[in-house]
Amino acid sequence: MTPVIPAEPSPFAFAPARSALVVIDMQRDFLEAGGFGESLGNDVSLLASAIAPCQAVLAAARAADMLVIHTREGHRADLSDAPPAKVQRGPPGQRIGDPGPMGRILIRGEPGHGIIDALAPIAGEPVIDKPGKGAFYATDLEPMLRNAGIEALFVAGVTTEVCVHTTVREANDRGFRCLVIADACASYFPEFHATALRMISAQGGPGGGIFGWVADSTRVAAALHPHREGKAA
Ligand code: C5J
């Protein structure tokens, strides 16, 4: 039977074999002190609430054999893929490429660029390195999804109104249905988190909201469990 998740603005039906969980930018640079997020003046502790819900949906997706994809925002060491307008953001000495407590800020391969230990990818899970906010921009995410026959995305990660939202918008224009997992996302600005989620499901009807659907991790995990039990039987 097709699993259906109670969601806003309407129930979300999905085929696990044609769905993927995309975990956006759960990197030390955004979640831990001394990284990119803090260099821009943010309280990084505000993102911690997303960790346990991300763990829960990751466990459920893995148990259901669903495709899991992780993304990391970051740049080449020579900054050749970083637009000057982005590099010049933030206080001098704490910008992209500058040395920090977790290595050079937002640079691939540096300790801060890594995904936090609690959500470490396991063997076989693709990790997309993206230079921008959207996970489709200048990456091979789209062919990866199309080749795997994916039509629906479960999206989690940080930050809700920046990289999660940009990715969902990009996915929308490419025809993917998106369900954003509310408590598995977080923002440095709680009011932006709430509004960004409302923007996803607004103007909704039976076919979803303007950008898709929103549901909590408990509902997503519960919908995946029957699928797992069905497989085991
Ligand atoms: C930001 C992100 N906030 N992952 N990146 O620049 O949302």
Automatic annotation (TrEMBL):
Q: Which GO terms describe its molecular function?
A: hydrolase activity
Region Disordered: start and end of each range?
Answer: 78-100
Q: Which UniProt keywords apply?
A: Hydrolase
Q: Where is the Isochorismatase-like domain?
A: 19-205
Give the protein name, as stated in the record.
Nicotinamidase-related amidase
Q: Which organism is it from?
A: Falsiroseomonas stagni DSM 19981
Classification from the root reads:
Bacteria, Pseudomonadati, Pseudomonadota, Alphaproteobacteria, Acetobacterales
